[in-house]
């Protein structure tokens, strides 16, 4: 049935900043979608259109909203909501039409304007076809084998997501040994609560405040100390054999630039000592020490953005050294951009893609990036952003694309739990035959096909 109306509005995300929400109406009902926003953003992400000026410290999105209401809406009313690829391409290539060396950059309308409509359109398409959203996404991607992802819980926050001294941004637990997503949730919650006790006992109650993504943010500086705290919590919880560790370094945030080409492990301190500014080779050695340290207890299986988004040489070297045992995840490096993904595949710079729909700005382009990454044998991790809303779209996306992994914060803060809770509902809906990625999170094709799909 055709689109009847599209209306955008400004709402507030989990970090107190404005973002775009869209209501798309068809004969089947109203379909609402909201766009997230990142704190640590890749240089090559599609343009997020902000207003500038005094209101909301320049972060208003009235320009993006006007673009939806006055340009996109009139052009899409009367169109078939099931034509996701056709309408996404129409918005991106015709209504916007701006390009840079990495493809369609959405400079005219804003990726936040286009994506809000694209997400709402996808929900409307599912309703028109009378299928769950995850199944509609699977059909759009040509994926016959949806599965439940392993949750990657970010339980210690640092970097640009917290006001502590930690340079590295996220320290995560992955319950790969669980038998189901619901068991993985139980494991994650128990480890999280035990981590709070560990931090409180070691540093005091005031050290248990949380960061943007719900993880604890103790005021420590040594990144290895964060790993120690988590390992202790895992041991207390009794899940050493079921949980593995992951990190999002977000190294572009503390790269000193091409001329100096060092990584400042005390970048939040304006008077950081020279000893804390280290070259890439020394940073590689530090990562290797983390991997060795945790190998006998809860091994590290995932390291995201270990180097700057343009430090290709270090990416290539590190992936060649440890990529067999550890997935090296491209986020700022690849920005869910099919052209950047192709470059990383060619250079063998990493072996996993972080999927963030707002980095590229449409559902169709996100699917294209995932398809290219999977063809190269990469793992896929679906991801939220630090500035989130209650929209749970990425939960269905992870299942429909058989991503194998999802990270959407700690089991804390309702904008994070909105996604995890939706995954619990999906698992219940799918029943006993549903597959959980588990230890095959890097290669979900090993699981075989979902028989009831």
Automatic annotation (TrEMBL):
Substrate binds at residues 161, 170, 304, 331, 383-386, 407. It is found in: Cytoplasm. Residues 145-444 form the Enolase C-terminal TIM barrel domain. Keywords: Glycolysis, Lyase, Magnesium, Metal-binding. One of its GO terms (cellular component) is phosphopyruvate hydratase complex. Pathway: Carbohydrate degradation; glycolysis; pyruvate from D-glyceraldehyde 3-phosphate: step 4/5. Belongs to the enolase family. This is phosphopyruvate hydratase.
């Amino acid at each position: 049935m055709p689109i009847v109306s599209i209306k955008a509005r400004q709402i507030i995300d989990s970090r107190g900043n404005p973002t775009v929400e869209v209501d798309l109406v068809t004969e089947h009902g109203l379909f609402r979608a909201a766009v997230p926003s990142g704190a640590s953003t890749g240089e090559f992400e599609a343009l997020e259109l902000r207003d500038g000026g005094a209101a909301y410290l320049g972060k208003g999105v009235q320009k993006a909203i006007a673009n939806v209401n006055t340009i996109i809406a009139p052009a899409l009313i009367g169109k078939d909501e099931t034509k996701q690829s056709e309408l996404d391409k129409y918005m991106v290539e015709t209504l916007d039409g701006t390009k840079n060396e990495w493809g369609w950059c959405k400079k005219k309308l804003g990726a936040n304007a286009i994506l809000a409509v694209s997400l709402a359109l996808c929900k409307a398409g599912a309703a028109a076809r009378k299928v769950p959203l995850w199944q509609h996404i699977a059909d759009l991607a040509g994926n016959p084998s949806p599965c439940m992802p392993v949750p990657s819980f970010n339980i210690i926050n640092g970097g640009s997501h917290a006001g502590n001294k930690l340079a590295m941004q996220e320290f995560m637990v992955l319950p790969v040994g669980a038998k189901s997503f619901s068991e993985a949730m139980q494991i994650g919650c128990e480890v999280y609560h035990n981590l709070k006790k560990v931090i409180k006992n070691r540093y005091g109650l005031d050290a248990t405040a949380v960061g943007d993504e719900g993880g604890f943010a103790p005021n420590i500086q040594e990144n290895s100390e964060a790993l120690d705290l988590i390992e202790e919590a895992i041991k207390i919880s009794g899940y050493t054999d079921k949980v593995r560790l992951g990190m999002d370094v977000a190294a572009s945030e503390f790269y000193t630039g091409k001329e100096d080409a060092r990584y400042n492990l005390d970048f939040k301190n304006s008077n950081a000592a020279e000893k804390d500014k280290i070259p890439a080779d020394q940073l590689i050695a530090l990562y290797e020490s983390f991997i060795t340290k945790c190998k006998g207890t809860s091994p590290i299986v995932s390291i995201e953005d270990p180097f700057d988004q343009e430090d290709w040489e270090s990416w290539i070297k590190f992936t060649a050294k440890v990529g067999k045992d550890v997935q090296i995840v491209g986020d700022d490096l690849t920005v869910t951009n099919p052209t950047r993904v192709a470059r990383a595949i060619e250079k063998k710079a990493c072996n996993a893609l972080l999927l963030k729909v707002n980095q590229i700005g449409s559902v169709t382009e996100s699917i294209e990036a995932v398809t290219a990454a999977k063809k190269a044998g990469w793992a896929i991790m679906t991801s939220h952003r630090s500035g989130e809303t209650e929209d749970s779209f990425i939960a269905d996306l992870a299942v429909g694309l058989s991503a194998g992994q999802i990270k959407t914060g700690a089991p804390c803060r309702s904008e994070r739990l909105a996604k995890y809770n939706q995954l619990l509902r999906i698992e219940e809906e799918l029943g006993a035959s549903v597959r959980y990625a588990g230890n095959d999170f890097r290669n979900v094709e090993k699981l075989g096909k979902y028989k009831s799909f």
